[in-house]
Amino acid sequence: MLYNTLLFIHSFWRWLAFLLPLVVLQRSSRAVIVRAPYAPVDRKLILAVTIVLDVQLLLGLALWAGVSPLGLQSFSSTPHLMKNPVLRYWAVEHGALMVLAIGAFHGLSASAKKLTDDRAKHKRVVMACAVVVILVLVNMPWPGRPYGRSLLPNM
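Above: the chain's sequence. Below: its structure in token form.
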């Protein structure tokens, strides 16, 4: 029951974790081109992306470390883990790449705060959101892959 609930929330929340950085990427890209100031709404959007990504990470870690049979429990079959693409994806690849995406976002967005030039801040936010969008696109369990999931959470 807990597994299904966490999986549903994680599967739903992934769209926020993909679409919100995409919106911020578009907004900051436009701001770089038109040389728009870095406004308070930009800081709030970065905070919103940070919260969404951190919640998604916590949900994923709860699944991986606690309740999912495809997470940490997969390491009990370590000799076969890396030979099985589905187990390898869920136990190692998915989490590692998503942690990398979120870590890169945190580092780049934190460094943007230290910049004084508004255009440079927007450029750094573009980099931060582009990393997230690209890594999430590449690493999402799309339907049709051996480890794929449906686009919408099963209700």
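The chain has one domain: 2-139.
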